[in-house]
Specification:
heterodimer, A: Alpha-Beta Plaits, 2 domains, 7-stranded mixed β-sheet, 4-stranded antiparallel β-sheet, 12 helices, 34% helix, B: mainly alpha, two-stranded antiparallel sheet
């Protein structure tokens, strides 16, 4: 069962849809057991009227590396802000290392690399080593200076001024600051955003090494590949809800959605919905786009159904569409779960 | 406690390495001092109390404190908050109040050398002669009463964004400087402006020091206005910090 991709129904009101009734809805349990590092129970967070997180449930085991995958605006940064106590939940509970988010931060057991604003996120006018030395001193029991320098691979620019760094170098320095306190738990919000391919590879190697020492890591990304390769488990969120939760490989297979585009003289939406593998139908004039989890089966069914289509074109869906596919998929699996 | 000292030292190092900050903080009071020096004869008695040379030095000390405090907070703070560094510190075990307190402390610490610098200009070019006790008393008084300026600078850094901070700081420098009677004695301004000066901390900051040098009782109104500014701005700062915190911006 451990490798099964669990998906959750979308738009569930408080208490959950029928598919999520029972223990699973009120308490987010770790699918793999073990000691819980993080728990998010029915968390709601609004920005004005906009619902950023809608009863989000998930839990992370100690030592686990979890990817929070989702498009921009899905609620990834909001989730991390809540886990760091930077934001308060409007409903539900956030548990971090057996205590509240704020306490966990105050105890120095948590480190974070957040998204930057207008600059590189580092204070201008100081050397990298000085910034690291300061952050170390803010923790009660920090890692040795040299250990952090080595872990983050910032040796070559420890003596540089923070405003002389390239984007990728600055990211590594910010990673060093995140792990300076030798935290049990690290949050990384889109950590590789300013890095080139090489930089990304190096960064993930360092991070994985850091995670191997029994630490819990949660990172947000919108790169499916990154999530798949680095994380033990991937949680897909969209519109503030958990869309899917499972190991990367299973997830990747599930989002192998394809677009089938064709033209018909007179579109009949209800017919396309019934085709095998179709999760979503978009019609624009005489153009029809089917989003399918099994393009071969859909194509075969399309031919069999005697629909008078022309100009058929099959393309890979982008991640955004994959999320839609997953959401649809969740509805189907959700129905089965309830039986 | 050592972490707080480390943070204050870190901020001081950053301030002293910034050419822009040093140029503004040293340049403005010294250049203005030189410009105003020849405006009147140095012995001219102002408001029947002190000669122009003393009045000018005290005024330029106040102006220097104002410039240093506003620029140490102000746009530097606004910029740093917009880059995400302030948030990075928030996810360390450092208590939230420490960030604000450190900024105020660092501003206060850069005010002191500016005061001494202006006093040295007074001693060398300004023909100011005081007893050692007077020098020390003057410096301590000017420094301690610069607290509302330090709080104001940090407050501005929290209220405005990186783009608008600079003009706001510049405007405050000159509004508080001119209307506070630092460039021209308040008694020689039109009546409406004279009453306006009564509500400005810059006027009361200089007034206290002038009273000290004229061996008069230090006016209660001066203390009251300076303390009032410190408390009100401090509370406003705490409020602003809380609002930002609840929105996850701080």
């Amino acid at each position: 069962m451990a490798s099964v991709l669990t998906t959750r129904a979308p738009a569930s009101p408080r208490g959950g849809s029928p598919s999520l009734s029972g223990a699973g809805a009120s308490r987010a349990d770790c699918p793999l057991g073990g000691e819980v590092a993080l728990r998010f129970d029915g968390v709601v967070r609004r920005y004005g009227k906009h619902l950023a997180l809608n009863h989000l449930p998930f839990a992370v085991r100690r030592g686990e590396t979890l990817a929070l995958l989702g498009p921009n605006g899905a609620g990834k940064s909001t989730t991390i802000s809540l886990l760091l106590g930077l934001l308060r939940a409007h409903d539900g509970t956030v548990e971090v290392l057996g205590t509240t988010a704020r306490d966990a931060v105050a105890q120095g057991r948590v480190g974070a690399m957040l998204q930057t604003g207008s600059g590189n996120g580092l204070p201008p006018g100081v050397k990298v080593g000085e910034a690291l030395a300061l952050v170390r001193r803010l923790y009660r029991d920090p890692a040795p200076f040299d250990t952090t320098v080595e872990r983050a691979g910032i040796g070559p620019f420890v003596g540089c001024r923070t405003n002389q760094l390239s984007g990728g170098e600055a990211q590594r320095v910010r990673f060093a600051l995140a792990i300076a306190g030798d935290p049990e738990l690290v949050f990384l919000d889109e950590p590789t955003v300013a890095m080139d391919v090489d930089g990304r590879r190096t960064f993930w190697r360092m991070m994985r090494q850091f995670g191997q020492e029994g630490r819990t890591i949660l990172f947000a990304t919108h790169h499916l590949e990154e999530a798949d390769q680095i994380a033990d488990r991937v949680i897909v969120i969209n519109h503030g809800q958990v869309v899917a939760d499972g190991p990367g490989a299973t997830l990747k297979a599930a989002v192998a959605a394809r677009h089938l585009r064709f033209v018909v003289t007179d579109p009949e939406p209800e017919r396309y919905d019934r085709l095998e593998g179709v999760t979503d139908v978009e019609i624009c004039g005489s153009g029809v786009t089917l989003i399918s989890l099994d393009a071969d089966a859909t194509a075969r069914d399309l031919v069999r159904s005697n629909i008078a289509f022309r100009d058929l074109e099959v393309t890979g869906a982008c991640l955004e569409d994959a999320f839609i596919a997953l959401t649809q998929c969740a509805r189907i699996t959700g129905g089965e779960e309830s039986r | 406690m050592s972490a707080h000292f480390a943070f204050v030292r870190f901020e001081l190092v950053r301030l002293l390495r910034s050419w822009k900050f040093l140029a503004i903080t040293v340049g403005f009071p010294v250049v203005f001092y030189m410009l105003f020096l020849g405006e009147r004869s140095s012995g001219q008695i102002i408001d029947g109390t002190v000669p122009w040379r003393v009045y000018l030095m005290v005024s330029m000390c106040t102006f220097g404190a104002l410039v240093a405090a506003l620029n140490a907070g102000g746009s530097r703070l606004a910029t740093e908050r917009s880059t995400g560094w302030a948030r990075q510190l928030r996810v360390t075990p450092m208590p939230a109040w420490s960030y604000v307190a450190t900024k105020v402390a660092a501003s206060m610490l850069v005010v002191l050398p500016v005061l001494i610098l202006v006093e040295l200009v007074g001693l060398t070019f300004g023909e100011v002669r005081l007893g050692i006790g007077q020098w020390v008393g003057l410096t301590v008084l000017l420094w301690a009463t610069a607290l509302p300026f330090a709080v104001l600078g940090v407050f501005v850094g929290f209220m405005v964004n990186a783009e608008t901070a600079y003009p706001v700081v510049t405007a405050l420098m000159f509004v508080l400087g001119y209307f506070g009677g630092l460039f021209n004695p308040v008694s020689q301004m039109p009546g409406a402006l004279q009453s306006a000066a009564q509500v400005l901390p810059s006027f009361h900051h200089a007034s206290l020091a002038l009273e000290l040098l004229a061996s008069r009782t230090l006016g209660a109104a001066n203390w009251l206005v300076l303390a009032g500014y410190t408390v009100v701005l401090g509370l406003a700062l705490a409020w602003k910090y809380r609002v930002e915190e609840s929105r996850g911006l701080a």
